[in-house]
Amino acid sequence: MIARYAVPFFVIVAFVVVPLVIFFLCRFLFPRRWGKKVGVCISLLVFLFAVYGMFVGYEQLEVRHVEFRSKDLPAAFDGYRIVQFSDAHIGTMTGMRKWLLERDVDSMLAQHPDMIVFTGDLQNVYPEELVEHLPQLQRLKAPDGVYSVLGNHDYATYQPGDSLTKEANNRRTQALERKAGWTLLMNEHRVIRRDSDSIVIAGMENWGTVKRMPRRGDVAKTLTGLSSQLPFIIMLQHDPTAWREKILKECQAQLTLSGHTHGGQADIFGYSPAALSYEVYGGWAYEGSRALFVSIGLGALIPFRLGLPGEIVVITLRKE
Q1: Would you state the pLDDT for residue 49?
Q2: Which of 249, 228, 247 is nearest to 293 (CA)?
Q3: Of 123, 153, 184, 190, which residue is least crowded by CB atoms under 10 Å?
């Protein structure tokens, strides 16, 4: 229910409550002759930031290029290009914002990747949000395929109704991702081959330290059947908190790709509110030769971004 009313709640808070609170605080804290003027100025500034974040910042896009180097990478995959996108929340890309997904798909295809991966949260609440966008999602193609995992919003977590209805909606979401031509990995993996070399693309279901979120990720099940020769593994997991809590402890995946945090959707003088909840909320984290990359996401449930545009990430693998 929270997700369903997140946007109107945000609008009321950002455009009414916060400016009014700031105005009255300024009147109380500053001398009478200045309090009202300072309050009006700061309240107006906050109001303008909210307008900018919703109608300009949210529509900005950055194509980010990064590299990951590993001695374990097979030689045939040196220079391999992966496009990662995350947290599309395409239920927000409707009406006058519908063009955003077309632009995003064009941008991804323009990178000519070997593989495209999506790290969760395709919908906001309901699977039917995906239907009108299916033609755009079906345009995503890459030589080695498009792989995806589920995020917390891709389950029926935020939907009212009984368990049977929720499970039917879960199956509907999964069916629509597959109808888009994507390989949805639900505690599964696939092997990508180049001549005699190979890498593994693995995908866990959602798992996070917050227990109210879906916790269906199973590392052992995801990697069942792999040889003991420790292949090069790219793990897809929506929630980055699973990296330290499960992935590092339970397997040898060299590279983990996540999303979920949205980077806090705001960067104000180098500070993000996501820092209050996540050790890593955007970019790289390393543990020896193993790494986690967290994308700050492409879209958002609440159409607001301030100083932190949505991103498409191009990851180039390099043999070290």
Answers
A1: 94
A2: 247
A3: 190
**Structural tokens at position 3:** 């997700």
Burial class, 320, CB count within 10 angstroms (exposed 0-12 / middle 13-18 / buried 19+): exposed
Longest dimension (CA), the chain: 78
CA distance 157 to 68: 34
Give the residue among 202, 148, 144, 139 at the shortest CA–CA distance from 173: 148
* Kind and range of the H or E run holding 166: helix 163-179
pLDDT in tens, 159-210: 988 999 999 999 999 999 999 999 999 999 999 999 999 999 999 999 999 9
Distance of alpha carbon 274 from alpha carbon 114, whole angstroms? 31
φ, ψ of residue 90 in degrees (nearest 5):
-70, -10
d(CA 273, CA 199): 36
Radius of gyration of the chain (CA): 21
Q: Would you say 149 and 115 are in contact if contact means Cβ atoms under 8 Å apart?
A: no
d(CA 7, CA 92): 10
Residue 286, beta-bridge partner list? 291
- Calculate ∠ Cα 293-297-303, nearest 5°: 160
Lookup: tokens for 77: 């995959």
The three-point CA angle 258-6-303 to 5° equals 65
Positive or negative, the CA dihedral 316, 310, 121, 89 is: negative
Residues 6+ apart with CB under 8 A from 270: none
Q: How many angstroms separate the CA atoms of 90 and 109, rounded?
A: 18
Nearest to 239 by CA among 212, 200, 283, 205: 205
What 8-state DSSP symbol labels residue 296?
-
**Pairing of the two strands 290-294 and 283-287:** antiparallel
